[in-house]
From TrEMBL:
Domain ER-bound oxygenase mpaB/mpaB'/Rubber oxygenase catalytic: 122-355
Top-level enzyme category: oxidoreductase
Pfam families per UniProt: MPAB_Lcp_cat
Keyword line: Oxidoreductase
Species of origin: Acinetobacter chinensis
One Gene Ontology molecular-function label: oxidoreductase activity
Name of the protein in question: Oxygenase MpaB family protein
EC number: 1.-.-.-
Length: 403
């Protein structure tokens, strides 16, 4: 069997500490060994050099006749295979696979996860933006496709609107039904990922010896965990303590979202501790933060100044800017703030406010159905309001996905 080369972003196996204090503590908490075995290390190496075989096969067909074949793909996605002028085996194979739910799919868990997500309200957005996204920028492997596709030139608000629009789509009730937006927007994003992989793979600018494959299996799996496992860590830090059933349903929802996005099942987690293990592995799969980390972090921190508030816009923009910085500082600390080129705050006051508010509300909800109903109704409204702050961008995105 041929030995797979190692991209230089991945530390050599012998350089990974097997018995450090950090790994011992995490192994105890996770109730499993978190340092990778040699077999796990090899699997990680392969994942860094693997794309999405099913969609990449479709892409090889699309680029043979880009204009016509892309139109056929979008017809199949938004209207169905029966709307094509004739059968196209490559599209039939792909859509038959993704239309068939995996045998482990549980609709009740999906529905429970949505209720749990709505109840999180504004907390989910703060954690995704100020912890998951900001921390992700510290790992340059994630940033390279953004740098080379010119996404850095986009306003941070546009990038955030794109992600928020997708998140809203998939978290709508029945969003994953075949022709609903959650399903179609996920497959569309998967298509774009494959298109980026195809073009960067042909580009002289992409350094495969350093980075492996663009938007590879491991980086996609870690992005999925940023939406699931990292959110669960974040909400506890902000004073919300989910039940075991809520955790299980939430992870199940994101397992299916990841599956639909083209992530191999072996990189989708069933329990939180599996996510902690993969988060630990990230330290060995990325070099230290670089100038792309500073560019993206600084740009995201200033994103509130792009928001379209209706009243007292300059004041609200400045307030939001400070609030987000305080939440980020609460989660990552001053040292990492400096690494991202972020302005430090005297104290993380807004995070402390969220903790006090959450402890009061979510503890009260356990004893009062009225408070629980308020969290459910108000939480979802607040989440949708987040997208409305980018009203013009949101309208552009909506029209992009309407066929």
């Amino acid at each position: 069997m041929q030995t797979l080369n190692r991209p230089s972003r991945l530390a050599a196996f012998e350089d990974i500490p097997q018995f450090s204090l950090k790994s011992k503590i995490l192994s105890y908490m996770a109730d499993q060994e978190v340092s990778p075995s040699f077999e796990e290390y090899q699997a990680l190496n392969r994942a860094l050099q693997s794309g999405d075989d099913a969609m990449d096969t479709v892409m090889q067909w699309v680029v043979q006749n880009p204009k016509e074949h892309r139109q056929y793909f979008e017809t199949a996605l938004y209207k169905g295979l029966d709307q094509l002028p004739y059968e196209m085996p490559v599209l039939t194979d792909f859509f038959r696979k993704v239309e068939q739910k995996p045998e482990w799919y549980d609709q009740q868990k999906i529905d429970d996860a949505l209720r749990f997500t709505y109840r999180l309200g504004v907390n989910n957005g703060f954690i995704l933006r100020d912890l998951s996204l900001m921390t992700g920028y510290m790992y340059p492997g994630f940033n390279q496709p953004l740098v080379l596709t010119g996404a850095l030139k986009k306003q941070a608000g546009t990038r955030l609107a794109e992600t928020t629009k997708w998140w809203i789509d998939i978290t709508e009730e029945k969003g994953f039904e075949r022709f609903n937006k959650g399903f179609t927007s996920t497959i569309y994003v998967r298509f774009i990922h494959s298109l980026v992989r195809y073009h960067l793979g042909k580009s002289e600018k992409w350094d495969a010896d350093t980075w492996g494959v663009p938007i590879n299996q491991f980086d996609q799996a870690m992005t999925n965990i940023a939406f699931s496992g990292v959110v669960l860590i974040g909400i506890r830090a902000l004073g919300i303590f989910p039940s075991k059933q809520e955790v299980d349903s939430f992870l199940h929802f994101w397992k299916y979202a990841g599956w639909l996005m083209g992530i191999d099942e072996k990189w989708l987690v069933n329990k939180e501790s599996d996510g902690w293990k993969l988060i630990y592995w990230m330290h060995f799969a990325h070099p230290k933060s670089d100038e792309s980390s500073v560019s993206l972090g600084s740009s995201l921190s200033k994103e509130p100044f792009e928001r379209q508030y209706r009243y007292m816009r300059p004041l609200q923009q400045k307030l939001a800017y400070r609030q987000h910085l305080e939440v980020t500082q609460f989660f990552i600390g001053r040292k990492k703030m400096r690494q991202l080129g972020l302005k430090q705050r005297p104290a993380a006051w807004f995070a402390y406010y969220l903790i006090a508010r959450n402890l009061l509300l979510y503890t009260g909800a356990r004893h009062s159905s009225k408070i629980d109903d308020f969290l459910l109704r108000n939480g979802r409204n607040v989440q949708k309001l987040g997208l409305a702050l980018y009203s013009s961008k949101a309208r552009q995105l909506a029209s992009m996905h309407q066929h």
